[in-house]
Amino acid sequence: MRENRLRTMWKNDQAVVNGWLAIGNSFSAETMAHQGWDSLTIDLQHGVIDYAAMVTMLQAISTTATVPVVRVPWLEPGIIMKSLDAGAYGVICPMVNSREDAQKLVAYTHYAPRGTRSFGPVRALLYGGADYPAAANDTVVAFAMIETAQALDKLDDILSVEGLDAIYIGPSDLSLSMGCRPVFDDVDPPVAQAIAHIAERAKAHGVQCGIHNGVAAGALARVAMGYRFVTLGSDARMLAAGSQQFLSAMRTKG
Fold first, then answer.
1. How high is the pLDDT of residue 101?
2. Enzyme catalytic residues
3. What are the chain's domains?
């Protein structure tokens, strides 16, 4: 089966630099993939992307060595299994708030006897290879999003679920849930403490830890903290920022 470079990099204690795709277009996904991101996450939750567009974006990413990941809209078995069947090598699931939620996520992302994933890897066979059915359970990565005060309270319960590979922090939602400003990098002190605590507990449980960031400096600081999957911005934000940079230069009076 095709290697999942997330697992290889983590085995070597390397941080995965992940890009984020919110624009539902295969050419923009292909362009992003050719820039050298370790992985790219297609955002079905908040991005303007439907399932059909996601499939074409996965095909575009496949022209490179970039690992394809999908952030599903919710903890719902149908979309999780369809995303895997389309060739996603990782699934990020939002709002995992309890041990039971994490157990469901693990079940939905694994074939029996380790889970309840239904068999039908229609495109995953093409991407992963003919031995996909036998190797998928040990190749695909399941991320549980920790983004609420409730999840923070149940953190050790969630991290102790067998088969959970990684967690992923949504700083904005976590901040809102804790009564703080919804930002990525310059979070309020209680959230900064929570982010450090999550990294410590994930390491203690042998679970990989990822987080969303707005700028490279923030991502580097979190790598130093122990995070091994760091997202930088999104295609939509980069498009806007690049446009603003050019326009600002053109409109500045000499």
1. 98
2. 46
3. 5-251 (3.20.20.60)
